[in-house]
Design goal:
This protein has 221 residues and is mainly alpha-helical. The protein contains 10 helices and 2 strands; from the N terminus they run E-E-H-H-H-H-H-H-H-H-H-H. The protein has a two-stranded antiparallel ribbon with strand order 1-2. The termini are far apart.
Length: 221
């Protein structure tokens, strides 16, 4: 498989500033960017090929159609997201510590991959029509496991009672909306909300909010 040396745009100070990506990996990265910013219907294979610096036939050598490419982009996204959250849930931590680990894992994933948020928002609004799968059905096992965890902790008296399904939806919105609506929030807060410092500040604020709701103490810094 051919490879091309490219300079990525990782977070400042990232040790992987210079990386070597295969052509297939470059196509996937550019497709994610295009689909996230222009949507499925607004993106053509020619757009993606031009962004990588190859011709359309070369792209089709790796992916036979736009549908196949979109499916691979989303499969990578979902695998990354579900793996990180599952790892956080599987940690040996308990009670509030585990809840905080899961929330921070979500923030870290979307801070590193803001295009994930945009493409997920677009697909959710479109009802999964371009994927040909039920997105909710893919995520629901993890959602149900999280609900069960909250119910157990609430029954044990570790957490105050709040309807666990809606609590999770609130957390989902608090994380994804911050990234998906960043241009609007930039104007509201008069700052670049996707800077590392701003994301950390918002993550801490969300953590304090849920800590007050679930534990009832506001002593977190």
């Amino acid at each position: 498989m051919s490879t091309v040396s490219v300079r990525s745009a990782p977070p400042e100070g990232d040790e992987f500033a210079n990386v070597v990506l295969s052509t297939r990996e470059q196509i996937l990265a550019e497709a994610l960017r295009c689909f996230a910013h222009a949507g499925y219907d607004g993106t053509s294979l020619n757009d993606i090929a031009a962004g990588v610096g190859i011709r359309r036939p070369s792209l089709l050598h790796h992916f036979p159609s736009k549908e196949a490419l979109y499916g691979d982009v989303f499969e990578t996204l979902l695998s990354d997201w579900l793996e990180r959250i599952a790892d956080a849930i599987a940690s040996s931590a308990t009670g509030w510590e585990k809840f905080e680990i899961v929330v921070r894992a979500g923030f870290e994933l979307f801070e590193e991959n803001p295009d994930y948020v945009r493409i997920m928002r677009r697909e959710a609004l479109d009802g999964g029509t371009h994927l040909g799968i039920d997105l909710a059905a893919v995520i629901k096992p993890l959602f149900d496991a999280s609900v069960s965890y909250l119910e157990r902790e609430m029954s044990a008296g570790t957490f105050r009672y709040h309807e666990p399904r809606h609590l999770l939806i609130t957390g989902y919105g608090a994380i994804l909306t911050y990234f998906s609506d960043a241009p609007l929030i930039d104007g509201l807060l008069s700052q670049s909300v996707l800077s590392r410092e701003a994301v950390s500040e918002h993550c801490d604020a969300v953590i304090r909010f849920f800590h007050a709701a679930l534990v009832g103490e506001t002593s977190l810094p």
